[in-house]
Amino acid sequence: MRGALVRQPCEVCGDPKVDAHHHNGYDNPLDVRWLCQVHHRQVHAYDVSSMNTAPLTPLRQLRLAAGLSLSEVARRAKINKGRLSIIERGVPPTDEEAARILSALRQTDAGPTR
Q1: Which residues, listed in sequence order, are joined to residue 21 by a DSSP beta bridge?
Q2: Cβ contacts of residue 40 below 8 Å, gap of 6+?
Q3: DSSP string spanning the chain?
Q4: Are residues 72 and 48 in the same domain?
Q5: Taking burial as the number of CB atoms within 10 A of a residue's CB, which of 9, 10, 80, 99 is the most buried?
């Protein structure tokens, strides 16, 4: 089966850097959608049934929509990644943690937004 697929650009934006996203499960390994990392994340953000991971809480939706990894938000917010994972699953953060997380989500690569 190796070599049976020819990599295509992202079906949404045309980006040549893509992941193969198996939308019908691994029972049909040649039935794939070609998506860049951004659009692959968006598919999972809006189709939680395709993932066996954390529930799609508002914080997780915001993080995925921002295109940020859990590690990146934890680093920016200066919060332990394990603690952030627990918060993302629905355990309420402290007021200080909430402020740090929101600030981290507002940051761009160029620095904090005003």
Answers
A1: 33
A2: 19, 21
A3: -TT-------TTT--S--EEE-TT-TTSTT--EEE-HHHHHHHHHH-GGG--SS---HHHHHHHHTT--HHHHHHHHT--HHHHHHHHTTPPPPHHHHHHHHHHHH-BTTB---
A4: no
A5: 10
pTM exceeding 0.70: no
Q: Per residue of the chain (114 residues), what is the pLDDT tens digit? A: 566 778 888 877 788 888 766 666 666 777 777 888 887 777 766 554 444 445 667 888 888 888 888 899 999 999 998 888 888 877 888 999 999 999 999 886 544 444
Contact 84, 73 (CB under 8 A): yes
Token pair listed for 103: 């600030």
Are residue 113 and residue 88 in the same domain, yes or no?
yes
Q: What is the DSSP string of 55-69?
A: ---HHHHHHHHTT--
Question: Residue 43's domain spans which residues?
Answer: 1-53
